[in-house]
Amino acid sequence: MKNTVKMEFLSVPDNVGLARVAIAAIAGQAPFSLSEIDEIKVAVSEAVSNAIIHGYHSRPDGWISMTAILDKQGLNVIIEDFGAGIADIEQARQPSYSSDPERMGLGFVFMESFMHELHVESTVGKGTRVEMQRFSRIQGELSRDVQ
């Protein structure tokens, strides 16, 4: 089974919860454990929160796109905003770095630790694309249940 879901929503803080519920429903179609699904939800929450807080500077009128692709390898999630962009991605990925002094700056750290792969592309003034992949594993081997 291959399944792809794409949704778009406004940069409203309540939509972080919407993204968490949606990704949990999609991830639940694969042989992920409950703790793995919780980790995926945290990673998605961080990506969506970053788009709202940093991409749109907490303005509620920006659009965020979330695409989830489930296949035999696992789950691929793409979170994309069309906001401010990131000037220095490597700096932004450092623990405790934040462009907002009120924030702890651990979003990318959580995404990186809870997902198997993380790729970030960004253009200042045009937005940011975060792509994360979580492989489906049963007893250390790739699942053959999800095709």
Topology (SSEs and partners):
Elements: E1 3-10, H1 15-27, H2 34-55, E2 63-71, E3 74-81, H3 89-92, H4 107-114, E4 117-123, E5 127-135, E6 137-138, E7 141-142
Antiparallel strand pairs: 1-2, 2-3, 3-5, 4-5, 6-7
Model description:
The strands form two sheets. A five-stranded antiparallel beta sheet has the order 1-2-3-5-4, covered by helices on one side. A two-stranded antiparallel sheet has the order 6-7. The chain is built from four helices and seven strands, in the order E-H-H-E-E-H-H-E-E-E-E. The longest helix has 22 residues. The chain has one domain: Heat Shock Protein 90 (2-Layer Sandwich), CATH 3.30.565.10. The C terminus is likely disordered. By secondary structure, it is an alpha+beta fold.
Widest sheet: strand ordering: 1-2-3-5-4
The helix/strand series, from N terminus to C terminus, equals EHHEEHHEEEE
CATH class: Alpha Beta
Largest sheet: 5 strands, antiparallel
Level of helix content? 25-40%
Task: Pick out the low-confidence regions.
Answer: 139-147
User: How many domain regions?
Assistant: 1
Overall mean pLDDT = 88
Instruction: Count every beta strand, where a strand is a DSSP E run of 2 or more residues.
Output: 7
First and last CA, distance = 5 Å
Number of helices: 4
What is the CATH fold-level name? Heat Shock Protein 90
Strand pairing plus helix content: what structural class? alpha+beta
Content of β-strand: 25-35%
> What's the CATH H-level superfamily name?
Histidine kinase-like ATPase, C-terminal domain
Give the C-alpha Rg. Answer: 15 Å
Q: What is the CATH-assigned architecture?
A: 2-Layer Sandwich
| Shape verdict | globular
